[in-house]
Amino acid sequence: MATQQISLVNSLSIDQRKSLLDYAKSCAQRSSIELGNFRTLLEYRDKAYQRQLNTTAEHIRAVHSNMKGDARKLQDITVPIIMPQVESAVAYMAGVYLTSYPIFGVIAYPENQKLALQIETVLGEQSLRHGWARELIKVFRDGMKYNFGMAAVTWRKTPLKTVVTDTTISSVGMAALREMSYGGNKITHISPYNCFMDMSVPPASIHTDGEYVGWNEIMSRVQLKRLLSLLDPAKTTSAKEAFESGFAGSSGAASSATCYNAPTINPYLNIGSGALGVNNWASWMGLSPANSNINYKDHYLVTHFYCRALPSDFGARGNQVKIYHAIIVNWNTVIFAEELNVGYDYLPVFIMQPLEDGLGYQTQSMLDNALPFQDMSSALWNISLESKRRLIFDRLIYNPRLIDKKDIDPASSVARIPLRNAAIGKDSAIMGQAVYQFPYREDNSATNIQMSDMISLMADQATGQNKVDRGQFQPGNKTKTEFQTVMANSTSRQQLAALAIEYQFMTPIKDVIKANTLQFQPTAKLLNREAREVVNIDPIQLRETILEFKITDGLLPADKLMNTELITVFLQTAQAIPTIVTEYDILGMFTYWMKARGAYWAEDFKRSPEQQQQFLAELQATTAATQPPAAATPTQGV
After folding, report:
1. Which of 172, 180, 553, 601 is most buried, judged by most C-beta within 10 A?
2. Rounded distance, CA 577 to CA 580, Å?
3. What are phi and psi of 468, to 5 degrees?
4. Rg (CA), the chain
């Protein structure tokens, strides 16, 4: 449990933390109007993405009828244009960045291949344990929906238990559990609804130029207990005050950065804010332990806050800009504060903007570009559906002296409509005058559907996609080469977005991951799943040679960094010019090229020294057997 003893190195005292808390509150309230507009637009985009914008009474009644099992009611339709395009773009980015193992490969000089394997093994293990792919997929989806995807990269130590063999005399050979801790880089997706940042700088420049950035999240008392156990105890304090502080609550005000923002997107399943309890009801009913001297609450608002500031801003000594990290509970108590003493000069929170044109937050996302076409296409479809409704619930003129209104309102195919005066039934002419139905005409429905399809094609042009990108059939006669050319050109817009993501988001993340690994990675033995071997991790050797490494990803694969096409041409040229073989190690070059392309399986087929000698002997015997005998030398003087 945290204590009041605070380390004086890279941390702040109790009074200084109070100044930091005031500073954090002022930062959170600095751009409240802009933040409110930003969050309102996020909610509008999410409703459009989930096709929940239509809240008319007629549509809601039809939906409720359908949910009760009445399939005869026609609800309005929202043509799915946005969601397929966004998901196709997310799938493309996932294919570029996340399908390889590890997500970030490592390239090094030939003499450092063993060290490259070490850091590649470390990164592969971290990506699996901390779920990098899962978090980055959520960031990519935010980037395509909002043109704003945020993630934090931190070094996290996690306590674990490993199964070992017991060596005690009483239970030798039995299984036993041994406590250990695992440290690694954790990539965390941050919800745009609950973040706040320095909005005076472009979103993609927050990590380099921003003054502050932070985000809120809800934790139960058990989660908060676990968080405290993972923090450095020398920099953690005020745990009891944090547990007893009042819950900041969940607010519907989008402009409030000091409350948890729980948007209502799906009206049929909204459990975001309703499950957040303020009081500890177990304690209220007298069910809490009698020996507990802490008045716990059910939930807490936990804020992670990063900032660039002067130590003198908080009453400490120094006037040089430093980076601080603080964890605040209920905007009331700072439980953790530290000065980041790391090998990079970033705020470790990164924002991707796939479409970056210099307008900052005003730049429209892929969703925004497709949204008008979804609305127009849906309107045309609903006009046709309204015509179908008229076919069932048509307009009538009736004589109220002959027919009661309540008898003709029910839309039933077997309805019996009584006449008010039974004597009228003797005159068929009068019965025909009781009701007059307007003629039903459906002249434009086919045209509306055709226009809707044309508008959907306009959406593809706006976002730079086609049907094949979404796994659909594209009619037309094309040769294989023509089709490949068309598809290569169709992904050019997505490649442009991938390039923007690479240099504004992925590159600084790789720098932070590399620096954290070199600074905090301990000695370990890890399994490399690609090479299928146990690798001994020596952080001292990694730190000595790291400047020679290049970390790759899907957009910068190994073949681009190494120019493997040139190596292929060189190997072909060596066959034609034998003198090259005497000057260069062709076999070593070919082996290096194979490993750089991921062919670690080649080690499984490597011959042992005995097998090499046996193969050479068999090769010499085979060569001697296939050569013809030498011709006899003619006798001299004959």
Report:
1. 553
2. 6
3. -65, -35
4. 35
| Predicted TM-score of the model (pTM) | 0.79
3-class DSSP state for residue 430? helix
pLDDT tens sequence across 18-33? 999 999 999 999 988 9
Strand partners, 151: 189, 350
DSSP three-state, residue 617 = helix
390 Cβ neighbours under 8 A, 6+ residues apart:
440
Residue 348 Cα distances to 4, 453, 501, angstroms? 27, 45, 16
Looking up tokens 């033995």 gives 525
Residues constituting the chain: 638
- Rounded to the nearest 10°, the torsion over CA 392, 395, 398, 400 is 90
How, if at all, do strands 175-190 and 250-251 pair? unpaired
Look at residue 187 and give its three-state secondary structure. strand
Tell me the pLDDT tens digit for each residue of 407-452. 777 766 666 777 777 666 566 677 777 777 766 667 677 777 777 7
The token duo for 30 is: 């600095």
Read off φ and ψ for residue 565, nearest 5 degrees: -65, -35
Q: How does DSSP assign 474-538, residue by residue?
A: --S---HHHHHHHHHHHTHHHHHHHHHHIIIIIHHHHHHHHHHHHHH---EEEEETTTTEEEEE-
Parallel, antiparallel or unpaired: strands 250-251 and 260-261: parallel
Rounded alpha-carbon distances, angstroms, from residue 258 to 24, 150, 207, 326, 623: 10, 19, 22, 15, 83
Task: Report how far residue 276's alpha carbon sits from residue 385's, in angstroms, rounded to the nearest whole number.
Answer: 41
